[in-house]
Design a protein that fits this description.
This protein is of the alpha/beta class. The protein is about 20% helix and about 25% strand. It contains 6 helices and 15 strands. The strands form 3 sheets. It has a 9-stranded mixed beta sheet with strand order 5-4-1-8-9-12-13-14-15, with helices on both faces. It has a 4-stranded mixed beta sheet with strand order 3-2-6-7. Strands 10-11 form a two-stranded antiparallel sheet. Helix 4 packs antiparallel against helix 5. The chain starts with 10 loop residues before the first strand and ends in a 12-residue tail after the last helix.
């Protein structure tokens, strides 16, 4: 199902949107949702390949400017997070269709930047070699989840990592994604050319071709952390591509990720003034959004 025309996008996101069950009713979620709002805030042409129930009204919460191809499914991928004194328990009640490269409109294979953003093991690993060497960002949390019979989500090893990581220009994951197997941090760092492990208010670690360095988080008052990691990853992918300087790109992504936690929902996407300030703080030339976006 095609929602809009298929021109060549500046930023292509691949992964399933989610219907998140919350105390305030269902809300649109998933990395592709937060990522689409973030890339649109940069003034880029955004495209999304996803699967969901075609008539799900939550799809209207994607950016109005984005081109969206929805692969029809009986249900939108549906999550619920339950919190207790011992932490978060996550349930996956429904899962939409798996995504494959042959579902892409031809023009989208020429996207400027590509982002593989699985939320529930729905992105086929073959996407990693489907774009002729174009820069790919991977946020792999959805590769490391399994649904038990009762819907409970449990962690698993990322079996397709050797197929995907070597082809990713940048891989961003949270330390929470590998808490079940901390040794994976070093294994992933050895496979991918650029791997970033985020650590919330403690900043994070960057691994690039065998070297590593730490970066600090910007001090802010947190309102809601949901989506902050997605803002960080998209901002890093864009800044690294546009500036070519890793240190500057990390500063920009860290700053914008920090601002994201000060707001809720898709309001976590960067404001124009914040993007300009991030470029200034990183010592980069002024960011000028593309005309006509």
């Amino acid at each position: 199902m095609l929602k809009r025309s298929t021109s060549i996008p500046d930023y292509l996101l691949i992964g399933n949107v989610t219907r998140d069950i919350t105390p305030h009713g269902p809300r649109l979620g998933g990395t592709v949702s937060f990522g689409a709002h973030t890339a649109a805030a940069f003034g880029l042409r955004v495209a999304v390949l996803t699967s969901a129930r075609p008539d799900d009204p939550l799809l209207e919460d994607l950016p109005s400017s984005a081109e969206v191809v929805v692969i029809p499914a009986e249900h939108t991928t549906t999550f619920e997070n339950r919190y207790s004194a011992s932490g978060r328990t996550q349930y996956l009640y429904h899962r939409a269709e798996t995504l494959y490269p042959d579902m892409l409109p031809d023009a989208w294979r020429k996207a400027g930047l590509v982002h593989l953003a699985p939320i529930a093991y729905e992105v086929d690993p073959s996407f990693a070699t489907a774009f002729g060497g174009r820069p790919i960002c991977v946020t792999p949390q959805g590769f490391m989840r399994r649904r038990e019979a009762d819907g409970l989500v449990t962690p698993i090893l990322w079996e397709s990592a050797p197929q995907v990581l070597p082809h990713a220009a940048v891989t961003v994951l949270s330390e929470e994604d590998i808490r079940h197997a901390p040794h994976l941090e070093q294994e992933f760092a050895a496979m991918g050319p650029l791997v970033v492990v985020t650590r919330a208010e403690r900043g994070g670690t960057v691994y690039r071709n065998g070297t590593r360095f730490e970066y600090d988080a910007w001090p802010v008052v947190q309102v809601n952390p949901t989506g902050a990691g997605d803002v960080f990853a998209v901002a890093l992918h864009i800044a690294l591509h546009q500036l070519g300087d890793l240190q500057q790109a990390i500063k920009i992504a860290s700053y914008l990720g920090a601002q994201a936690v000060t707001r809720e929902g898709f309001a976590s996407a960067p404001l124009t003034a914040e993007i300009a300030e991030a470029w200034r703080l990183a010592g980069a030339a002024e960011y000028v959004p593309k005309e006509g976006r």
